[in-house]
Design goal:
Layout (H helix, E strand, L loop, with lengths): L2 H4 L2 E4 L5 H15 L9 H15 L1 E7 L2 E9 L2 E7 L8 H12 L2 E7 L3 H9 L3 E5 L11 E7 L14
Antiparallel strand pairs: 1-2, 2-3, 3-4, 5-7, 6-7
Helix pairs in contact: 2-3
């Protein structure tokens, strides 16, 4: 089997990639949570990625062949976006993208919807704990959500043995 087909390449995304990033989010979100209201056009979502996320976040994409299949936007101890196309979920792509963020931040917070059981299980497997649940009044979808938190554990140092000195 060709490794290029099984191992995604992680690349830093630029303004030229924002349409693809926004599309990954739309497809992943509405295939998994079809009841959510579709509040923005694809063009509005691309503008959000280009004008808000790109200047304020590190944005990485997971490419397989010549196609982006996953995306993460993170910075300032927050994951703003993390999506993998449904046909590519369960292949370690989300874990790879999340690992990139964990390498750069000692603690991370993120929001996900309470009804997104797949995302909740994913974050819990990666050491995140639920910190707060809301009724959704503060998000534009008005969907109950949950705040997750992860903190890097301190490195263990070997116990020092007292000297006989």
């Amino acid at each position: 089997m060709d490794d290029a087909l099984t191992e995604p390449e992680i690349v830093a995304l630029t303004a030229d990639h924002m349409q693809a990033a926004a599309e990954i989010r739309r497809v992943a979100l509405w295939q998994r949570l079809p009841w959510l209201p579709d509040l923005h056009t694809p063009e509005e979502e691309e503008q959000y990625w280009r004008m808000h996320l790109l200047p304020n976040c590190s944005i990485l994409g997971a490419a397989m062949g010549n196609r982006f299949v996953g995306v993460i936007a993170y910075g300032d101890n927050w994951i703003e976006q993390l999506y993998v196309l449904p046909d590519f979920q369960g292949m370690g792509i989300g874990s790879l993208l999340l690992g990139c963020a964990k390498e750069e931040m000692d603690e991370i917070r993120l929001w996900t919807f309470q009804h997104n059981a797949g995302a909740r299980a994913f974050y819990q497997r990666h050491g995140f704990t639920a910190e707060e649940e809301t009724d959704g009044a503060d998000n534009e979808e008005r969907e109950p959500d949950v705040l997750y938190h992860w903190r890097r554990l301190p490195e263990r140092t070997p116990d020092l043995q007292p000297s006989d000195g």
